[in-house]
Amino acid sequence: MSANLILLILIGVLTACGVYLILERAVSKMLLGMILFSNAVNVLILTVGGPSGHSPIGGPDQPVDGMSDPLAQAMILTAIVITMGLSAFVLALAYRSYTLTTTDDVQNDPGDEEVAARRDGEDPED
C-alpha cells in the first residue's frame, strides 16, 4: 500500500502548526491550534483508511475487494462532532475570561510561580 505523499506532508504541516499554536498563551490561538491538530488527525485517519472504492453498502453480488472501509469515515465524523463541541466550550471559556479580565492571555498562577522558583532540595517552609 502506498500513501499519498502530498497528504502526508499536509498532515505534518497541520500538526506542526497546531502544536505551535496550542503552546501559545492566548486562548484564541490555543483554540485555533486545537482545530488544526484535530484536522490533521482526521486527514491521517482518512489516509490510513485506504484508497477510495465502491460504496460499502451494496448488493450481494458486489465484490468485497473493491469496497471502501466505512470505519474511517465514521470515526472522522465522530471526531468532527467532538471537536465542534470542544471548540464551543473553549469559546465560552474565552468569552468568560475576556469579560472578567479584558484580555485573552492566560496568566501565571502565583502558586505555580512559587513552585517553579523553588530549588531542588529546598524546604518549602523556609
Automatic annotation (TrEMBL):
Source organism of this protein record: Nocardia puris
Record keyword Membrane present: yes
Gene3D superfamilies: 1.10.287.3510
Protein name stated in the entry: Multicomponent Na+:H+ antiporter subunit C
Similarity remark: Belongs to the CPA3 antiporters (TC 2.A.63) subunit C family.
Stretch list, region Disordered: 103-126
Membrane topology summary: Multi-pass membrane protein
Main location: membrane
Statement: the UniProt record of this protein carries the keyword Aminoacyl-tRNA synthetase: no
GO cellular component assignments: plasma membrane
Transmembrane parts of this sequence: 6-23, 30-51, 71-95
Taxonomy of the source species: Bacteria, Bacillati, Actinomycetota, Actinomycetes, Mycobacteriales
Biased composition (Basic and acidic residues): 115-126
UniProt keyword annotations, A-Z: Cell membrane, Membrane, Transmembrane, Transmembrane helix
Subcellular location: Cell membrane
